[in-house]
Design brief:
It is built from six helices and eight strands. It is α/β, with parallel strands linked by helices. A six-stranded mixed sheet has the order 1-8-7-4-5-6, covered by helices on one side.
Length: about 210
């Protein structure tokens, strides 16, 4: 398998340094690259998820597409509209309970959620397979306190993200800018330092 590669169109000095460290670490790891997602799907391994390799993509503000819009049923029975997130930088994480990488990254996401909540950064989980009770049990077991949508019946949120930068692996994490446009994407388990930098860079953009 190839070492992790990093797809980007813009990267600041801090993220460049992080990329160099992550790329060197990737040489010592085995994993599936983003290019092999289709192969994973067809190989019939029985692991029930398509694994990303942590590859991240950044989109400069001038190249971002239209805002992501959706309405989602939440695990507590309420409904969330994307319009309620407008004006905030938002982290959107696609996951489900049986996904081992999702369990691995849960504490990282929760730590960043606590770190940035005072800055007005919203976090939203999007559960792609489970019923609400299962999603809530996962949150209790792994200590995640940010809200999650249940995107099983009509896959409305997944469809909203189904353009050029789609959630092609489980997990996939997006950072949306204040206008609700995709600013960056991570395929696979998040690296806390990388996601931290992606959030802070998006937060620093002019509103």
């Amino acid at each position: 398998m190839r070492a992790a590669t990093f797809s980007r169109t813009r990267r600041g000095p801090r993220l460049a340094r992080l990329a160099a460290v992550t790329a060197l670490a990737g040489l010592a790891l085995t994993g599936c690259s983003a290019d092999s997602l289709a192969e994973q799907y067809s190989e019939g391994s029985g692991k029930n998820f398509i694994a990303g390799d942590g590859t991240y993509t950044e989109i400069p503000a001038e190249s971002r597409t239209d805002p992501i819009t959706f309405e989602a049923a939440m695990d507590d029975g309420s409904t969330l509209s994307s319009s309620s997130l407008s004006g905030n930088v938002t982290v959107v994480n696609f996951w489900y309970a049986g996904c081992a990488p999702c369990r691995e990254e849960a504490p990282v996401l929760e730590e960043l959620y606590q770190q940035y909540s005072a800055d007005g950064v919203a976090f939203l989980g999007v559960n792609t397979r489970d019923q609400p009770a299962t999603a809530r049990s996962f949150a209790e077991r792994w200590g995640t306190t940010f809200p999650s949508a249940i995107d099983v019946q009509d896959s409305a949120v997944q469809l909203a993200f189904s353009g050029q930068y789609a959630p092609n692996a489980t997990p996939t994490t997006f950072v949306l800018d204040r206008e609700g446009r995709i600013a960056s994407r991570i395929l696979g388990t998040v690296d806390g330092k990388v996601l931290d930098t992606l959030i802070s860079d998006t937060l620093a953009e002019a509103s």
